[in-house]
Amino acid sequence: MDKKIAIVTGGNSGLGYATAKKFCDNGIKTYVVGRTRERTENACAEIGEHAVPVIFDLTHLEQIPAMVNEIFKKEGHIDILVNNAGINMKKDFVDVTDADFEEVIRTNMFSVFSISREVVKKMKETGGGSIINISSMAAQYGLPKVIAYSASKTAIEGMTRAMAVELAPFGIRVNCIAPGFIKTKMTAKALDSDPERKNKVYSRTPMGKMGLPEDIADAAYFYALDEAKFVTGTVLPVDGGNSIGF
Q1: Which domains does the chain have, with CATH numbers?
Q2: Mind telling me which residue stretches traverse the membrane in this protein (predicted)?
């Protein structure tokens, strides 16, 4: 029990990669969950010896219990879960099909619920832990053309508060980070093709710039630490002031 054990979903790129690296650099053994074998294994090789690849598609909800059980059997405890994996879909509202909506919700919300439930079972056995959910500015204010993504991230913030209240008696803390606009491939894809949207991002961000993946990793690391032992049920915007910008 000397070394903390973490699971970071979507940990082979972007915010998840930065978070996994932050954990591993500080001696936390981190299971990096990703769908693509090559990308996930390469990411873990770059991160270092404390990173362990887990090739898994979180949309296969029925297989999540076995995946969590396997990690728990190896380690005997799971101390930290970062629910970072997610997808986006940019479409006009009327063009979003039921299948489109369901795909985003399944990845961004159902899988978060399922893996959290299974990890909580283990955390209750070993005396507690920290769950860190990743939200978005799409849950802080209205963003056009991302209806399914907005719905999923708003749900994540509600789940965070409900989980925090129910799980506090078991020593399990649940918090949420709401990233602003961060320099990742996913953000670049969304903004570079839409100059008007990109200009709006900068104009309403008081700090006048985009954040770095490491900014999110630093916040996740704080939530994971014992120094945050009296912090639960919070949603922390890490956004350069975007959510309160005029």
Answers
A1: 5-179+212-237 (3.40.50.720)
A2: none
CA-CA distance, 16 to 26, in Å (whole number)? 16
Residue 170 token pair: 């078991």
For this structure, is 141 an active site residue? Answer: no
Q: What is the pTM of this model?
A: 0.95
Distances 160 to 26, 166, 176, 178 between C-alpha atoms, Å: 26, 10, 7, 12
Contact 174, 127 (CB under 8 A): no
Question: What is the token pair recorded at 76?
Answer: 């005997």
| Degrees, nearest 5: CA angle 85-192-176 | 30
Task: Supply the Cα-derived Rg of the chain in whole angstroms.
Answer: 17
DSSP codes joined into one string, 53-97: EEE--TT-GGGHHHHHHHHHHHHS---EEEE---------GGG--
pLDDT in tens, the chain (246 residues): 469 999 999 999 999 999 999 999 999 999 999 999 999 999 999 999 999 999 999 999 999 999 999 999 999 999 999 999 999 999 999 999 999 999 999 999 999 999 999 999 999 999 999 999 999 999 999 999 999 999 999 999 999 999 999 999 999 999 999 999 999 887 777 788 888 888 888 899 999 999 999 999 999 999 999 999 999 999 999 999 999 998
Q: Which residue has 């990690």 as its token pair?
A: 71
Active-site pick, 31, 149, 221, 223: 149
